[in-house]
Write a structure and sequence with these properties.
This protein is an alpha/beta fold. The longest helix has 35 residues. The radius of gyration is 30 Å and the shape is rod-shaped. The strands form two sheets. Strands 1, 4, 7 and 8 form a four-stranded mixed β-sheet that branches. The protein has two domains: 37 residues; 79 residues, Immunoglobulin-like (Sandwich).
Length: 132
């Protein structure tokens, strides 16, 4: 009877140690995942018409050399998020306006870099028309 009781206790302790080991490994994997995860930043702002001072709805705002971009909302605002920390070039374009490039935008981890941009209408040269 005593031997049977000792064997049962031994199996319980062995099972508890096994579960503790699994739990320890799981916790270590979760911590390692957090260590390797890199915090990202964002570029936010609004696009404004130079002549009228009004915001531009639907202007294209993109990171130069990438496919990451967005259109401004009804308030002329944009937010490019999920950017790894570093230096970026922002390109803003809109029909009838000159494309504008903003260089050396520094994005920091877990922070939003505000960049408001003023754009102006593009001058258009029309071809000469002769009426006879």
């Amino acid at each position: 009877m005593v031997i049977l009781l000792v064997k049962q206790i031994h199996h319980k302790v062995k099972a508890q140690n096994y579960l503790k080991g699994i739990l320890t490994v799981c916790v270590m994997l979760l911590l390692a995942n957090n260590l390797f995860a890199q915090a990202t930043g964002a570029i936010t702002g609004k696009i404004i018409d130079k002549k009228t001072g009004e915001t531009i709805i639907g202007a294209a705002v993109k990171i130069a050399g990438t496919t990451k971009g967005i259109a401004t909302d009804v308030d002329g605002r944009y937010a490019l998020s999920g950017l790894t920390p570093g230096t970026y070039i922002l390109e803003i374009s809109y029909i009838g306006y000159s494309t504008k490039r903003i260089t050396d935008i520094e994005v920091k981890a877990a922070a939003a870099t505000p960049v408001d941009v003023v754009i102006e209408e593009a001058g258009q040269n029309l071809a000469t028309v002769i009426i006879t």
